[in-house]
# Entry
Amino acid sequence: MNSNSEVYYPNKNVLEKVYLKDYDSLYKSSLNDVEGFWSQAACELEWFKAWDRVLEWNYPYARWFVNGKCNIVHNALDRHASSWRRNKVAVYWEGEPGEKEVLTYGQLYRQVNKLSNALKKLGVHKGDFVTIYMPILPELIISMLACAKIGAVHNVIYYGYSGRVLRERLIETSSKVLITSNAAYYGGTLTPVSGIIPYAIQCPSLKYVLIKKRIDLPVFPGLPKTSKEFPKFVYWEEVVNNAPDVSECEPMDSSDPLFIIYTSGTAGKPKGIIHSHGGYMVGAYLTTKLVFDIKDDDVYWCTASLGWITGHTYVVYGPLLNGGTILIYEGDLGYPIQTRWAKLIDEYRVTIFYTIPTNIRSFMLAERELENYSLDSLRLLATVGEPIDPSAWKWFYEKVGKGRCPLLDTWWQTETGIILITNFPSMPLKPGSAGKPFPTIKAAILSPTGEILKENEKGMLAIGGPWPGMMDTVYQDPRKYIDYWDIVEGWYITGDIASVDKDGYFWIKGRSDDVIKVAGYRIGTAEIERAVLSHPAVLDAAAIGKPSSSGSDIIKVFVVLREGWVLDDLLIEEIKRRVIEDVGQIAAPSEVVALTSLPKTRSGKILRRLLRQLELGKGVIELEGQY
Ligand code: WTA
# Structure
């Protein structure tokens, strides 16, 4: 991957219609007036009270739209529901078995109001945490918006995570209410989501478990009876459907928390990243508008799970802040036919399609079946989450976008909240490059000692902050927030390795730390190792991300066994099961092998990078600098 690779130029049709026609001049002018740039975007939204100052930058802490009063839900929902968009479709939902649901902005507004009132009745107040654990259902979006509307902080947990993870996060956030569903369809299997609830609710703060019936079956078959007063189990159908459908947005300060989202870091347990109403709202709104170029006649589909930051910013908030129509789909994109995703695009006339490279590589396996679909509604494609190799890029561009749709690789993180480095539809595109910094964003490649590196040199990807949408803090661990800014004075260090070419395009190579990206998900080696080490046979363990033939990483675990144990098929299965039970299916190791010892530094740190290099067949112990 280098700057000499091919360049794809936007066609005239695209250029004529896009919001952002001239990236270079906007970028240049934005650097001269960062606050002016963002305040202009903020003025396109409605505020209960205007801000006193656009930015208060007290390195490394930023406050955006200081003393402004707003509520993201007012801008994402209420203002549309009281405009001509009242009868415009906000959400199309399709379940994996094929059920359909359509919610206009007016209908979504009433549903959100009902749940807001129901939550208040269950004792949820401004500032309280509410945990949400359900598959992609309309009620998941309704739950996020209802929490935000009343000023509660939502904590969405991907429903593939284990009961242990759910319990830990309920306890850590002192959640008052858990919103869940009884089941989910995925890959043709009906998962009893609520099955793990009884094991996850030993959380003293939890007063209610609110359950949406995904299917009409008993919620907890065989639920053990408890004599405890709380938590009480209540049903959506009873407490929400009959609640009043009028509710006002709670006026929030710009810096009041909107949500917490957990993500894996270098070491230890996942971090609770907090984002707030004001800056995040403006950042999500403007990046969605300028990158995805979303318009009123678009049908926008981002395939991300809602438990991921992409689900928060670019399934829910960004598109709805722009008054967009979104599609959400519950299940497996390749079920019951491999081209289910293409069928959905044709059926809903999807115009903007945002997904991850892992999905693209699985789409490539059924290329011939694609002939059955026209895909002619598409006008823009985008990817996120992991580097996209040029061959997958070109396949997606040609076979799905038919050479007509700009294909935008977008780079960002849970912590950044919004897209920071990206391609735009009007920009010449280089397959495999994540493009250039969003207006006002200063990005650079730094050496381990903090010098800005020259073109094509690999180094630490860093952002010269701040930007609206940037995390506020790491929940209950403010030191971890500082860590990002502490490595090189003046820079936010992303944890990625990248280079920049002579034309200013960024090329992301991967993580520099112990974070593994599996199908776009971010998993810490520490989480996997902890689960593996819980097996009595295991003395020591190291997990790495191993590139697979599909292009994405798979998880490989090295174990050192205690005396008397042999790594046979049974033990391998047991070790895998430990990880699935402790963390969840997404962290399941694909390979487990035994070593007599693990390579370590003198201070005892596992040299995972060495294991990875050996795995890649490099064999030589040659560390590329201490990033
Ligand atoms: C990786 C996901 C290459 C990167 C929104 C980053 C990418 C991590 C890209 C954040 C991209 C994200 N190209 N790598 N376009 N986008 N990444 O927090 O390693 O789940 O640091 O947020 O994903 O993962 P997270």
Notes: Residues 620-627 have pLDDT under 50 and may be disordered.
